[in-house]
Amino acid sequence: MNQIEHVKCLIIGSGPAGYTAAIYASRAGLKPVMYTGLQPGGQLMITNDVENYPGYPEGVMGPKMMEDFRLQAARFGTDIRYTLISEVKLDQTPKWVKTDDGKELTADAIIIATGASAKWLGIESEQRLNGFGVSACAVCDGYFFRQQEVAIVGAGDTAAEEATYLSKLCSKVHMIVRRDEMRASKVMQERVFNTPNIQIYWNSETDEILGDTAVTGVRIKNTQTGEKTEIPITGFFVAIGHKPNTDIFKGQLIMDETGYIHTEGKSTRTNLSGVFACGDAQDHVYRQAVTAAGTGCMAALDAERWLVENKLA
Predict the structure, then answer these.
(1) Measured between alpha carbons, how far is 78 from 223 in angstroms, rounded to an integer?
(2) Which homologous superfamily is 120-238 in?
(3) Does 170 qualify as catalytic in the annotation?
């Protein structure tokens, strides 16, 4: 029978939130063990230029930044393991987890930093040109398309907000909406309608993103007439939502209807004692590397205080 390993502080997931939690937890002497998940470094591993993270005056490639985070966490003694947690039991003391290779562990405190994944349209050109004009974050990448024409697909609050944001940077924003109406709230719709350089294409879907090595245009298809139109652009933004990577915690942690973990007040505490959540797994509002890192810091401090209060540290 396999012996079950016990750890004081277990971090599930990496990325800015997980690595920052690891830095703080290791410096506090909690000897954290981190399971990185399937994509160590999270969404930033598929992000080319990051220019809005403090401390990188010339900008930095997303994978390079995550490598810096990883090295800093490892420097202070974080035990980083490159596999996936596949099963958890969080409503017991200590908490129990199982990895996808069958290893079992128990932990006094658990920090969840599993992040979220952008929803994509599912067309080949979208993935091929991802990072070469295709993006799922206007706030992250809009700056690179100043005074250029771009397109954005989506009809909810996020799409409306990002279209408005892009309109302040770009010469024109082509907004592709699948139906004859938007799902966004009325106030967000009004902002879009009142922005002169946003052009809406109703009853339209993306047929293909054009370009060999970089985005040069988009071909859209009218869902009612079948007519196809090509629009010259240099940037294509997908704003159809994100899915938090929290499925394995369902039924144990309180979440909203889309799967974001609920945390109490201005803390990272979940509804279960000794379980903390940070980064995009619980933040559906900001979704930035710097805010994820901030909540990673908070989670480590919350976990440390909880361990001390419960005489486990």
Answers:
(1) 52
(2) FAD/NAD(P)-binding domain (3.50.50.60)
(3) no
Q: Is 140 a catalytic residue?
A: yes
pLDDT tens digits for 20-57?
A: 999 999 999 999 999 998 778 888 887 777 888 999 99
Active-site hit among 9, 108, 141, 170: 141
Catalytic residue (one of 9, 108, 137, 283): 137
79 part of the active site: no
pLDDT, residue 298, reads 98
Q: Which of 9, 100, 101, 140 is labelled catalytic?
A: 140
Mean pLDDT of 85-92: 96
The tens digit of pLDDT for each residue in 208-239 reads: 999 999 999 999 999 999 999 999 999 999 99
The predicted pLDDT at position 171 comes to: 98
To the nearest whole percent, how much of the chain has pLDDT over 90?
86
What sign does the CA torsion over 43, 15, 5, 7 have?
negative
Helix (H, G, I), strand (E, B) or coil at 127: helix
- In this prediction the pTM is 0.82
CB atoms within 10 A of CB 3: 7
Q: What homologous superfamily is domain 5-117+242-309 in, according to CATH?
A: FAD/NAD(P)-binding domain (3.50.50.60)
Sign, CA torsion 71/21/91/259: negative
Work out the widest C-alpha separation in the chain, in whole angstroms.
Answer: 68
- DSSP secondary structure letter of residue 250: T
User: Which distant-in-sequence residues (6+ apart) come within 8 Å of 86 by Cβ?
Assistant: 98, 99, 100, 248
Domain ranges of the chain: 5-117+242-309, 120-238
